Write the structure tokens for this entry.
Amino acid sequence: MNVSKALESRSAVRAYLDKPVPADLLEEILVAAARSPSGGNLQPWNVWALTGDHLNRFKATVAERAQANPMGEGTEYKIYPDNLAEPYRTRRFKNGEDLYRSLNIPREDKAARLGQFAKNFGFFGAPVGLIFTINRQMEPGQWADLGMYMQSVMLLAQEHGLSTCPQEAWALWHKTIREFVGLSPDLMVFAGMALGYADNSHPINLWRSDRAPASEFLTILR
């Protein structure tokens, strides 16, 4: 699969088959992604891969704590700006509505929407859960580098017939993550990612988020 095909076919997959990912393939992807660019070659990414019993114990820990605190522990950074401006506010709203529409969950069914959101914290049933962290001293440039590493992971996974879902929602459980994997104090939880084989029969995987026309973001000066 070439890069163009991987980029075009990639989407955020939120339902997975009960099929394990070979350990050597997982390691191959995570190591190969380290060829991603980074300013000054800082390589400011750290990744924790949870599989098997470790993944099951982690999900059980989160599920138990979510009974008392279903929205998590708060984040150490703002996932979205306050008072999100247009057109970004409308894009975010439409994306959420399209997602819930694929599951026939109406806006007024708050419980069902919360239940779907909570599936983030089971990695949507994926056999691999990834946690990405970054050193606290890093600046926005290095956060962009971490994002490029994550993008490389997603494209390499796509090349190998796997699917992914990047999840900033995991920042809501940074305390539990820190405790479970033994993060050092200098590392901050940025995001998680589900990785596995897509359940292509599930309705939530039958829609794709749209993209703005080039006229909204592209300027070519000739």
Summary: The longest strand covers residues 187-196. The chain has one domain: 3-208.
